[in-house]
Structure formats: C-alpha cells, structure tokens
Amino acid sequence: MFKQAVFLPALLSLVGGFYLPGVVPRDYDEGEAVVMKVNKLDSVTMQLPRDFYSLAFCQPEAIQQNAENLGEILSGDKIETSPYTLRMKVMQHCELLCRKELTKPEMALFTKRVHENYHSNLIVDNIPAARSFMQSMYDRKGNKIGDSEKVYVKGYPLGFVAKKDSNAKAKEGAAYLNNHLRFDILYHEEPESYEGSRIVGFEISSFSVKHKYSGTFSANTVLDTCNALNPVSQESTPQPLETEDNEVIFTYDVRWTKSDIKWASRWDMYLKPTTGASVHWFSIGNSFMVMIGMSVAVASVLVHILRKDLAKYNELANELADEDPELEKGWKLVHGDVFRPPAHSTWLAVAVGTGCQITGCVFVTLLFACMGFLSPANRGSLGTALLLVFVLMGFVAGYTGTKLYCRLGLQSWKGLAVKIVLAFPGMVFSLFFVINLFVWAQGSTGAVPFGTLVALMLLWLGISAPLVYLGAYTAARTQPEPFAKRVNNIARLIPVSDDWSASPFMILFYGSMPFAAISGESFFLFTSAWNHQFYYIFGILALLFLMLIIVSAEISIVATFMHVGRENYHWWWPSFFASGSMAIYMFLYVIYFFVTLESASVISGVVFLGYAALICVSCCILTGTVGFLASLFFMQKIYGSLKID
Asked: How far, in Å, are 301, 338, 400 from residue 314 at the CA level?
C-alpha cells in the first residue's frame, strides 16, 4: 500500500512508456558531477519556514533559485544551489566545505534557531535527505511485536541543546552546531536496461565537531580531528555556539553504496509511515465499526418504523382516517409542510453548492493521487492539484446551488451565483491574506509573494467565478424537479416538546459520529502536515473519505427523521448541521494537538490555528452538504410513498 504513490510511474517504465513530468530517471556515469541543492529550514515548534541562507552557512559562488510551482510556493519551499561537490561513486572523506568566522549576531541567530528546533533540508537527484533509525513496535503490555524496521525522517537538525545523556564532552544546556554531514547515497545499476547508475536513496547523518588543525588555515589544510582513518563520530568534541571562539569549519563525507532498490521504488522508504501499518489499519477498523453501527441504526428506522407506518397508513388512510387519529401523527402529519422553504434559503443553497464543490475537489484529487499522478517526486503537486481542481469545480458549485435554489421556488439566481463566488472563497482568501501578513512580518519563506497572491486572485475571479456563473446559468435553464408533496398555504403550528431529543445540543451529539469515523487517522494527517513528514497513504485516506461520506449521510437521515417525528418540519438546517457539527470536535482536537506541539511562538500559533480553522470549516461544509442531500433524498422517498396529497 505504500507503493501506490509511485505505482503508475513504475508501471509505465515496465511497458516502455513515458514517465510523468518531474520523475524522469537520470543516469550518471562514474565520476560525473551530482548536483546537491538546499531547501527551506523548518521547525515543528515554530511552523515558520526559513531561507537556508538566512543563516551563515557556506555558500556557492552564485546562489540560484529553482523555478517553483504554485504548491511549492504555498508550502514555503525555496530550493537553491549549494556549495557541496559530489561525483558519482567517488568516495569523499572529511571534505572541507569552508571556514567561517561568525560574528556575534550570526552566532546568536544560529543559537536561536537551534533552540527553536530548526532542521535543514537537502536534495539530491530530486529526493530529499533523510535520517534513518530502527523502530520497534510494542503491544500494550510492552512486549515487542515483530522485528525492528528501518524508518526515515526527512532533514537533519541544525544542532542540539546538550542534556545529561548527551555527548559527555558537551556542557548541559549549551547549544552546539552540527557542522559535519555524512551523506550515504544509494545507487542502482542494470547494465542490460540502461547505461550508468541511478540514485535510489539519500541518507544523511549530522555531527557536531570542534575541528582542530596545525598552522595557518588554507584550502589544503589537513584537519587533525577528521580524516579517512579517524572519521567524525558522536563522541567527538562538539562545536559550541555560545563561546568566544567564533571559528567554525564545515566538512562532509560522501559514501556510495550499491543497492537492489529499483529507481521506480526509491520513494518507498520515505513513504513508509513511522507508526507502522497496523496502526493505520486499526483506524480503518474503528471507522468501519462506526459505519456499521450507523447503518444498523438507519436500517432499524427504515425497516421497523417506516415500513410498518407506510403499510398501515396507505392501507387505511382513506377509510379510517377520521376514526383512527393514530394514523395521522408524527412525521405523517406534516406532509403538507415538510417541503416548505426554510429560513435563509439562499444561504442554504450557497452552502450546498460550496459543499458539492469541496466534495468533488477532494474526490477527484484522491482519485488522481491513488492512481499515482501526484507523485512525491513532483513537489507541490498535491497542493497545486487541490487548488486547480477546486477552481474547476466552480461549475459544480454554481449548478448544484442554483438547482436547489430553483426547487425552493426562488428566482434571483444571478445574485446567488455572486454569493457562491464570494462567500467561501472570499472567507478563505481573506483569512489567508491576514495569516500571510503575520508570516511576512517574520521574514519566513512561508510568506506568499505578492505576484502569487495576484495569480490566486486571477484563478478565483478569472476562472472560478465564470465557471460558477456558467453552472448557475445551466441549472436555471432547466426545469426544477418538484418535491414529493405540495406545500399547504397555511403553515402548521409546531408543538412544544419536552423530549430530550428535541434539544439543540443533540446536534452536537450527532456530529460526534462522523468525527469518530476519522479520529484515528486524523492524528497521522495532522502529524504529517505539522511535523513536516510525508503522507502518501492515499488508499487508506480514500477509504476513510468514503466511510466519512456514508456515516455523515446516515447520521443526518436519523437526525432528520427524529426531527419530523416530533412534527417539526424545520428539518433543513438541522440536517445540514447534524453531520456538519463534526467540525467542532475536529477543532477541539486541533487545539489539543497544538498544545502537544509545545509551540514556541505566538505567530506560529496564529498560523497553525488559522489554517486549522479553514480546514475545519471546509469539513463542516463538506459533511453538512452530504448529510443534507442524503436527508433530502430520504424525505423525497418517504413522503413520496404516502398516498395522499
């Protein structure tokens, strides 16, 4: 299941077809130069990416920045050239990169970034540097399950703050810089298929060492602390940052290892989750049990209540309605009002149209991801795809929103189209713009440039808006489908109910069911997003999305039936928020998750909670729309079965 993100490129390579853009293999001859690039600095506790060269690292003669796609820009990537010199299959030991005499401000900035837990990111042949470690799984009793597995985490820490169990030569509480890197690069060869070698892995180890040498430093200086026979280790005297000695020497090793890993499978090691596959399958099992429970509840409503009521009502309604008042009660009594347009009908249509747009966007993106089109080799492809598909789904928003709008007997569809264009996208863009101001003020690479903001505006108003209008126009030109029953001229009075199920707080209870269906995998999603890890288990994510859709539909049907069962025909908005209220639980979970991150900055909190709020609002609209449409279909069916008008 972890190979799905690269399945299609591998298949195409086997049949001699083409490779997807960005994933074409590169064959290197022995001794040929291999380019290494640097990417942003990122931190789990800060959530504000930084430019690599914002710190006083060694620099190439000319820093050149890669052209980046929209997804990379929005994620804060900044890929630039580096001074590292690598050659295919050429071993290098303790290569001198440069010697720096740091100023006090430079030293202080390094120290600050180390305390803020920043990590550096390097790239070789389009794959990121990753640290490897052995991980074991344990049961609840602490017993080891299976063999230890090798897992990878991208990037390497800038340095460390010494603790009691750290390097014995380090002073507790002091900051130290990782100034020596060891690159372990894996390569694969198939002489019968292609010439040269292909890079299939890039592992990195970081060390802190206070280099020493004799005489005056020069480009040919031989270090006493690092050579082929005496490599740097974790026991070496570390390079302090809070010291009067401002000299820092940066060095690196390069080791090449032949591997059986094929080029098409080289991303598997990065995509393998650090939590183990069993944990993900447990979350799937949890979601499946919630779905089954809801299905049983809905089935009991449909089979044990509705079938009995409909059979009795349709058989005796015309003969005994006056003699048996029990036939005309509950949900059957409001057949003349149940399709009465609700309050704020226009905004309901806006919400449903936007919900269909979001649902279609997620579905199409997951479909392409499961097919392998959104390969991790194409950095930023996932974000770019989500944005573009959402824009193109503007037609769906205009069509579905206007379709409901016209069924409710409303006429001003042009005004509705304007509200669909401005409501949700306008809210998202406004909040995004405010967050971007905070990030820009911090000098972070996560700040979106003005040109990109203009491009987003053009996508919104130049492409999405016309598509919304086109969808609305198409729906307005078609004859609206009538509801199952005509609406009475005079509205019924809704009886007062002391039933606990009539409490508005029941809406919150209903929302707990859809959240329970995804709560297990939510942890991994947030961990991947905010801990800067890879998440490409799209098969599991697609299953969870399907279960979320089913549970949201079922819980709204149950909530709607209980609502009209109390002779309350105002079911429209409650059916929407019955499943949509799951976003409240999600946001509470987000706050709990944020607390566990131990954020070190108010700005990072603003960024985290701002983007999390956007995600939660989107989930509310998505699940609410699914629940409402399922309830509308349900109401059409049960009231269409009543042989009375």
From this structure: 18, 18, 33
In a domain, 525, yes or no: yes
Amino acid, single-letter form, for residue 457: M
Please say if the pLDDT value at position 578 is more than 80.
yes
pLDDT at 92: 92
Q: How far apart are CA 206 and CA 17, in angstroms?
A: 40
Provide the token pair at 109. Answer: 């900035």
DSSP state of 221: P
In a domain, 309, yes or no: no
264: containing domain: 4-136+149-271
Mean pLDDT, residues 509-515? 86
502 and 421, same domain (yes or no) = no
pLDDT digits (tens, 9 = 90+) for 279-295: 556 667 666 777 777 67
Number of domains present in the structure of the chain: 3
Is residue 97 domain-shared with residue 177, that is, in the same domain?
A: yes
Least confident piece of the model among 24-38, 124-138, 601-615? 124-138
DSSP-assigned letters across all residues of 28-62:
B-TT-EE-EEE--BEETTT---B-GGGS-----SS
Sheet architecture: strand order including 156-157 = 42-43, 118-120, 156-157
Dihedral over Cα of 633, 637, 638, 640: its sign: positive
Residue 37 phi, psi dihedral angles, 5° rounding = -120, 160
For residues 379 and 350, what is the distance between their CA atoms, to the nearest angstrom? 34
How does residue 317 score in pLDDT terms, banded at 50, 70 and 90? low
CA atoms within 13 A on the CB side of 524: 25
| Residue at 487 is within a domain | no
- One domain, residues 266 and 205: yes
Please report whether residue 308 resides in a domain.
no
